[in-house]
Amino acid sequence: MNEVISEAASGGGRQGGRSSAEDALGQWLALADVRLDGERPWDIRLLQPGVAERVLAGGSLAFGEAYMDGAWSCERLDELFTRLTRARLGENMSGLSMAWHVLRAKLLNLQSPRRAWQVGREHYDLGNDFYAAMLDARMTYTCAYWQGAEGRGEATTLDQAQEAKLDLVCRKLGLQPGMRVLDIGCGWGSFMGFAAERYGVHCVGVTISEQQAALGRQRLAHLPVEFRLQDYRELDERFDRVVSLGMFEHVGHKNYPDYMAVARRCLAEDGLFLLHTIGRNDTAEGTDPWIDRYVFPNGELPSIARIGRAVEPHFVVEDLHNFGADYDRTLMAWYGNFEAAWPRFAGELGERFYRRWRYYLLCCAGAFRARDIQLWQWVLSPRGVPGGYRRAS
Questions:
Q1: SS3 for 91?
Q2: From the candidates 143, 203, 363, 364, which is the catalytic residue?
Q3: In angstroms, what CA-CA distances link 171 with 102, 198, 315, 390?
């Protein structure tokens, strides 16, 4: 199949109303039960000429850019990406752009102290009003815990599922009134606000987003929480507990040892550290080129093996919990909110942004639905919990 794609990408005439590139792309998509110009919700409809040549030559980056340009459409992008991911078609169409991203990740520290602020400016500082419209009431930009919400016997909403996740984290950490808690990558402070309100703890959070820190301080001014605009590597003080929800994806494998060393030096000898992160099933460098360019610059998903090696010198692994399937439902809830709120932002952000954000949310939902990526919560202790750790139910 690679040979067919390579030949078609270089050009070729039309046969039976389709170019050789469109024939090759159609054959490739058929492996995932996806059709060009088909009628099913997950089929791709070509809207401009040259899409197939562009995609075959440029791989996943060109595929996403062509969608942003309005060159092709699909009613259910989430189902399209579920099928493409399950069929592992990306392995046969990585292109030179993917090779370049892998090489950069191998040779450079893409998450150095200087580069670390880029994702804050380009993603998290997009606009507090925009994120408030897309997220839950507490503005929790991490995976919700739907099973926990349903277990309470209530009608499940995104707000309830996010509170169930925050409560699960607090119970896993065994929070008690008066404890001092560090939140590495605190976002708008959803965890800190919840933990301070419900468990009576004092929180310090660090973020690399100016807008997150500003709004968080405003929203939580009545609580014992502190926001710091600070790189995690600068931290050096003691806390009873440490938590990090959805920030580790920005750390990069070259910095995992330093990250774990920081968490350890900040944690009391009898403390617990909860790490909540998206992860990949294999160990590899880099990330999808489209995601890197248009969503999370310099991001990289960890594997269990890489986290484990970084943890070894510092912590005992007390618990590892995977509820990655819940991220599919979370992303679809965010997408529903995004669609409902879009008329408020359309004039300012424009059609190309709409297509970019739709592509981002739904391709990620498809990847979680296909179980290609996971969501892990690790509970770590410095020397092992005496008598053993018991996960909160």
A1: helix
A2: 364
A3: 39, 11, 20, 10
Active site residue 364: yes
Confidence of residue 67 (pLDDT cuts 50, 70, 90): very high
- 45 and 73 Cβ atoms separated by less than 8 Å: yes
**Both structure tokens of 362:** 């739904």
Q: How far is CA 40 from the centre of its chain?
A: 28
Kindly write down the DSSP assignment for every residue of 156-225, as one continuous string.
--HHHHHHHHHHHHHHHHT--TT-EEEEET-TTSHHHHHHHHHH--EEEEEES-HHHHHHHHHHTTTSSE
Mention every residue, 6+ apart, whose C-beta is less than 8 A from residue 21: 8, 9, 11, 12, 52, 53, 56
Say how far apart CA 223 and CA 200 lie, in whole Å: 9
Q: What spatial distance separates the first Cα and last Cα of the chain, rounded to whole Å? A: 48
Give, in order, the Cα–Cα distances in Å from 116 to each of 2, 119, 214, 216.
Answer: 36, 7, 19, 20
Reported as type and span, the H/E element at residue 269 is strand 267-280
Q: How far is CA 155 from CA 130, 135, 146, in A?
A: 26, 18, 11
Lowest model confidence (mean pLDDT) among 51-55, 188-192, 193-197, 373-377? 51-55
Which amino acid, residue 363?
C
Q: Residue 99 — very low, low, confident or very high, per pLDDT cuts 50/70/90?
A: very low
Q: What is the DSSP string of 35-62?
A: -BT-SSTTSBEE-STTHHHHHHHHHHHH
Average pLDDT over residues 194-219: 95
Residue 122 amino acid letter: E
Q: Residues 40, 41, 42, 46: what is their CA dihedral angle, to the nearest 10 degrees?
A: 80
Phi, psi of 388 (to 5 degrees): 100, 150
Maximum CA pair distance of the chain?
74
Q: How confident is the model at residue 123 (pLDDT cuts 50, 70, 90)?
A: low
For residue 262 the two structure tokens come to 């920081």
